[in-house]
Amino acid sequence: MIARPIGRRLFAALTGALCLALPLAQAWAVDIEEVTTPLGLKAWLVEDHSVPIVTLAFSFDGGTASEPQGSKGVTSMMALLLTDGAGTFDAQAFKRREEEAEVSLGFGASLDRVSGSLSVLTANRDEGFELLRLAMTEPRFDPEMIEQRRAQATSSLNQSEQRPATIAARAMMSTVFAGHPYAPDVEGVRAGLKALTQEGLKARAATLLSRTGLVMSAVGDIDKAELARQIDRAFGSLPAGPAQAAVPQWTPEIKRRTIVIEKPSPQSSVQIALPGIARNDPDWYAAFVMNHILGGSGLGSRLSTEVREKRGLTYGVTSGLRLFRKAALMVISTASANDKVAEAVTLIHGEMARLRSDLVTPEELADAKTYLSGALPVSLDSSGSVANLLYSMKVDDLPRDHLDKRPALIGAVTAEDVRRVAKRLLRDDNAVTVVVGKPVGISAEP
Amino acid sequence: MLPSRRAPIVTQVVVYKVGSADETFGHTGIAHFLEHMMFKGTPTVGPGEFSRIVARNGGRENAFTDFDVTGYHQTIAADRLELVMRMEADRMANLQIVEKELTPERLVVLEERRQRIDNVPSSLLDEASREQLFGLHKPYGMPVSGYVEDVKKYGPDDLMAFYKQHYTPNNAVLIVAGDTNGEAVRKLAERYYGPLASRPVEARRRPSEGGNSLPQRVVRADPRVAETRWSRDYLAPSLRLGLKEGETRHAYPLAVLARVLGGSETSRLWRSLVLDRKVALSASAGYSGASLGLSSFGFDAQPAAGGGVPEIESALADEIKKLLDNGVTPEEVEGAQNRMLAQAIYAQDSLASGPRQYSAVLSTGGTVADVDAGPARIAAVTPADVLAAARDVLREDRAVTSVLTPVEK
Question: Which of A273, A294, A424, B376 is most buried, most CB within 10 Å of its CB?
Fold first, then answer.
């Protein structure tokens, strides 16, 4: 099927100069309540009765990084297959029930967690939470569905190995996390998919779907008592298993490396990875502001100004802080024509150096702060986005009043803080650079 | 104006009733290039400043170009609506396009094309398929981003001429959603957009015929492809235009038909191709009626290891024959309708979806009344309507089949 609009950029726009901004109105009245159910389960709730919808976001401790050798890929497959039939309902019957009740229910896996989400109309709330209960407590893992999902997953793995941006991201992760469970293992997953069995899927579900380490948040047309009742119905019969075995802490290797992967494409995809900063580090907010000024949100950042706006070397260049349970990265990504990519990479290192040596201007600092304080409330334009915010606050172990404190924490960052954290993070001797395409003027540096 | 009280934020959307399909061969990509240049300054707001000011005020903004429409949108605290309206009105009338800004932005536009099209084998195939379906060098048969040789030759005067021709208040639609009210929006709009001079705009034309040698088959073998993809698109009427008189009545039935045939994993195609015959890993159908000219009804499938393109085509032929012989059941139609109507409730939950819906219809010749009547028109579709639409549209002489394959080693 064809046709789609094209946009001016892949990323939301931003950043600043000149005058100081006015204080911003608080957007969504995020009044977070704590709910403790009769069975002792805990969730955060933002009640909002303006639209007859409830959204629940939740996750379980443990993800793909804790998969044992020989069963790589099993966690994602388990998550996917939870909604492929449960109890006395095979996949078709289960999906028909979801459709008839207009329920949106899905699970997925990341390195550290298995997450799920449920959206349901108020009128069908009981049915929505019942389907959630069935999926988590009585999944069927029918052989026919295992075959189908195995074939689809193998195919999309094959296809993903052809996309320059995906290849670059994967090679970057393999290099920085070499020897650590966070390193992607494509061949391991391929073998694991082949070896996938119903017993293996059941065992993985039994290990991970536990009340221990469960994190939940809800938003929408529901009150505390009703949410508590529904949560106990859906999650109450899950076992309270032992805590998951912890993934070891990652220790970065301090070494500059460049990896070039030749692919027949007109444009080279680039990833530059640096060791990042933990969410509970005292310099987190300084790094947050520094990243924004460097390339945090696309247009207007220093990287975008130099690489895109002044020279037209790319359609997009961004930087981001990435958090994992036992590691943190700072990643800069871009894509540029094969014969221009070397210049783009040089400019990126130039901007890293400038943040290490010079103080950011008062205007840049003020603009970054007003943006970072104001953009969060403006992003809360649907109950799903609020539920995800609450959920990520819980995963990051932030307090319930975090949103009240956040503007002051951002506001306290000084230009000196930004330079200090730039010196700490933006180190050329730490950078792992991956280039995928047919780059001119960039050579491997193992 | 679409009010929502749940958060003190607003979204302003301005769409112009012009898109890439209003360009002619030899002059492609102007609408999109101009969209980029709309951020490059007026006498009072410098190059790049529009984005910076929105950001400094905690807002988000972006823009897009499609075949029939070019749009600009911002989401920001409700008390900043006046700011974004003032700036949007300013660049509606006072845009400056200078060589110094145009030169690097041209490279950005070309880089965007590399990233979205040249680096993506399926996008390259789409371009070739559109040429066949809608006709070579015809409005929907040319890429939105334009041909590279065209984009390379434009100077400020070319873009400015296009701007003068199409960017005028009488050719724009303003949509505001969020925490404000109709009266406040009207006052602001009259103040900022009201004084801008209107200019006559030429009537928009779209051909009521497609490519002149259908059916066609387009095959692309690409070393960057690991897995074969198969699709087939049929020329279809939109809400506004059909190949024959009266065909637009099929638009809502076609939306229902797409759901029944391939809207989910319980659809006919999924059950037949993926579950029963196991010739495909996935199968779907799609249709959108929001187009000023003709639209398309499409099928998409990925062959399974045990199947190939011939098996997919034979299974689909059987399903289409069954459909044309026996039609669809009242239960299937009702199920599809319920799902489409429930989606309308879910759409209320997001500040972005209302403006998206209205702008799609208003920029393609529809009215507010059309949008509001949408749910009732979907609910009124009968199995007989669906069958009649299928019989008119799912015909060999309207089809382009596209196959993307790995290169044989």
Answer: A294
Give the active site residue among B35, B101, B319, B332. B35
* Catalytic status, residue B35: yes
Claim: this prediction has a pTM higher than 0.90: yes
Question: Is B44 found in the same domain as B178?
Answer: yes
Indicate whether B224 and B127 sit together in one domain.
Answer: no
Pairing state between β B60-65 and B229-236: unpaired
pLDDT for residue A156 is more than 70: yes
pLDDT tens track for B213-232: 999 999 999 998 999 999 99
Q: Note the pLDDT tens digit of each residue in A248-264.
A: 999 998 899 999 999 98
All residue ranges of chain B with pLDDT < 70 are 409
Residue range of the domain that includes B355: 216-405
The CATH number linked to B276 is 3.30.830.10
DSSP-assigned letters across all residues of B111-144: HHHIIIIIT-HHHHHHHHHHHHHH-TTSGGGS-T
Residues of A in contact with B59 (CB under 8 A): 374-375, 378
Residues in a beta bridge with B286: B298
Q: Chains A, B: CB contacts under 8 A, how many?
A: 257
Q: What does the alpha-carbon distance between residue A57 and residue B366 come to, in Å, rounded to a whole number?
A: 38
Strands A267-275 and A432-437: antiparallel
Q: What one-letter code names the amino acid at A342? A: A
Whether A28 and A20 have beta carbons less than 8 Å apart is answered as no
Residue identified by tokens 């095959």 is: B219
Residues A112/A247, Cβ–Cβ less than 8 Å? yes
Measured between its terminal Cα atoms, the distance across chain A in Å is 43
Total number of domains in chain B = 2
- A438: pLDDT confidence band, cut at 50, 70 and 90? very high
Beta-carbon-side half-sphere exposure of residue B28 (alpha carbons within 13 Å): 21
Of the candidates B14, B91, B83, the one whose C-alpha atom is nearest the C-alpha of residue B45 is B91
pLDDT of residue A13: 26
Tell me, yes or no, whether B389 lies in a domain. Answer: yes
On chain B, the residues whose CB falls within 8 A of the CB of A124 are none
Per-residue model confidence (pLDDT) at position A29: 60
DSSP, res A89:
B
Cα angle: A211, vertex A213, A217; to 5 degrees: 85
